[in-house]
Design brief:
The protein is α/β, with parallel strands linked by helices. It has 2 domains: 2-78, Alpha-Beta Plaits, CATH 3.30.70.120; 118-275, Vaccinia Virus protein VP39 (Rossmann fold, 3-Layer(aba) Sandwich). The chain has helices at 13-23, 53-60, 76-83, 123-134, 155-162, 175-187, 217-226, 246-254; strands at residues 2-9, 29-33, 38-45, 64-71, 87-89, 93-96, 107-110, 146-149, 168-172, 193-196, 210-214, 235-242, 259-266, 269-275. A hairpin with a 4-residue loop joins strand 2 (29-33) and strand 3. Helix 1 packs antiparallel against helix 2 (53-60) and helix 4 (123-134) packs parallel to helix 5. The longest helix has 13 residues, at 175-187. The radius of gyration is 18 Å and the shape is globular. The protein starts with a strand and ends with a strand. The mean pLDDT is 86.
Length: 278
């Protein structure tokens, strides 16, 4: 097994991650170095399975600090499992990989981290889940629809379905993510409609009364510029943001009548809860 690691400056991390995920859509491992000034993204694979180094260097561009490839020890599979730990959210939801046991007192959500990026443990996903768990279920059944923009492995969409929201749908540019969301939804016994959609080139974004958008800043700003293919959401939970980017994104969606109702932070990341006035 080979580990390909790319180190970039923190200020360039969000753009670099978006580019790397086009080369390695099955996901990347993220770690902070040098007190958070440098971010390391790593992908794993057998020889010949990893992206070509010239492609990686071109994607990272001027943000590149270092690219390193190393052989991974034979116990990599066990250490990889230790990296993906279960999380508890809001005293209600338990997100776990399939090899961890369920907890009877919590709502169970099982995600295979080998399928697509996003298992719930990253700060941005966890912040979205915290806001989602606290969101009261709409009294009007017609206002319980959910759209997950950039669904990844389906964590947010599946959580919404388990919490009683319906109908739930998710879109992603990557076909592998669309498939993973559908498979994970089926494994969790919930219905999530999935489809491919390019948030950069696809025009107005699909919408629902509740929209979940765990995206990087450039994609969130694309959505805000393109607007919605229908009535704007009543509530938008947006994350994938560094703390210093939150004001800009909140202002962009304010032009659609969505006002900031809550803001959460964890480490250097932030999530926004935005609402349209009743």
């Amino acid at each position: 097994m080979i580990r390909l690691a790319v180190r970039v400056r923190r200020k360039d991390a969000d753009v670099v991650l978006a580019e790397l995920l086009t080369l390695a859509p099955s996901g990347v491992e993220e770690a902070d170095l040098e007190g958070g000034a440098i971010v390391e993204y790593a992908v794993y694979g057998a020889p010949g399975e990893l992206p070509d180094l010239p492609d990686v260097e071109a994607a990272v561009g001027g943000a590149l600090v270092e690219v390193r490839t190393t052989e991974v020890a034979d116990d990599w599979a066990d250490r990889w499992r230790q990296f993906h730990r279960p999380i508890e959210v809001g005293g209600r939801l338990y997100v776990r990989p399939p090899w961890e046991p369920a907890r009877d007192e919590l709502m169970d959500l099982v995600i295979d981290p080998g399928q697509a990026f996003g298992t719930g443990a990253h700060h941005t996903t966890r912040l979205c889940l915290e806001l989602l768990v606290e969101e009261p279920l709409a009294g009007d059944a017609g206002a319980r629809g959910v759209m997950d923009l950039g669904c990844g492995s389906g964590v947010l969409a599946i959580a919404a379905a388990k919490l009683g929201w319906s109908p739930v749908a998710g879109v992603d540019h990557e076909l592998e993510s669309v498939r993973a969301t559908a498979e994970n939804a089926a494994a969790n016994g919930v219905e999530v409609a999935t489809d491919r959609f390019d948030l950069i080139r696809g025009g107005a974004a699909p919408t629902a009364p509740l929209v979940l958008a765990n995206l990087l800043r450039p994609l969130l700003l694309c959505v805000a510029r393109a607007g919605w293919a229908g009535e704007p959401p009543r509530t938008l939970i947006a994350s994938g943001l560094l703390v210093h980017e939150a004001d800009e994104v909140a202002a962009a969606f304010a032009r659609h009548g969505l006002a900031e109702a809550d803001r959460r932070t964890s480490a250097e990341w932030a999530a926004l809860l935005l609402r349209r006035p009743a």
